[in-house]
């Protein structure tokens, strides 16, 4: 974990998120069968951390997959990351 923190601090790792992803984290971790693994306070801390350190972006929907359409935004976020974020 300390290596990850160091890479985030020095900018060699860039975390990218969307409002939709943050919302999904809140919803999924509050499901009855998962609540015991994700204490409410820990989820709150994670969301606050992501809101502080992550680059929040808006993505345009381009993927329309029928199997699980509510997850299309994740594919769009991956495409955004590949197209818009420079590699080092």
Word description of this protein:
It is a single chain. The protein has 88 residues and is mainly α. It has one domain. Helices cover 52% and strands 5% of the residues. It has 4 helices and 2 strands. It has helices at 2-9, 19-29, 40-53, 72-84; strands spanning 16-17, 55-56. The chain has a two-stranded parallel sheet with strand order 1-2. It is flat. The chain starts with a helix and ends with a helix.
Note the topology:
Elements: H1 2-9, E1 16-17, H2 19-29, H3 40-53, E2 55-56, H4 72-84
Parallel strand pairs: 1-2
List keywords for this structure.
88 residues, mainly alpha, 2 strands
What's the count of strands?
Answer: 2
Strand order of the largest sheet: 1-2
- The global form is flat
- In terms of structural class, how would the helical and strand content be classed? mainly alpha
- Total individual domains: 1
Order of helices and strands: HEHHEH
Specify the helix fraction band.
Answer: 40-55%
Number of helices: 4
Radius of gyration: 15 Å
Question: Major β-sheet, in short?
Answer: 2 strands, parallel
Strand content: under 5%
Mean pLDDT: 86
Distance between the termini: 21 Å
| Poorly predicted segments | none
């Amino acid at each position: 974990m300390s290596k990850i923190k160091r890479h985030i601090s020095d900018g060699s790792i860039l975390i990218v998120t969307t409002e939709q992803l943050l919302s999904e984290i809140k919803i999924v971790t509050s499901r009855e069968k998962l609540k015991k693994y994700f204490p409410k306070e820990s989820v709150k801390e994670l969301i606050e951390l992501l809101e502080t350190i992550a680059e929040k972006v808006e993505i345009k929907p381009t993927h329309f997959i029928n199997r699980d359409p509510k997850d299309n935004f994740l594919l769009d976020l991956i495409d955004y990351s590949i197209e818009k974020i420079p590699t080092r």
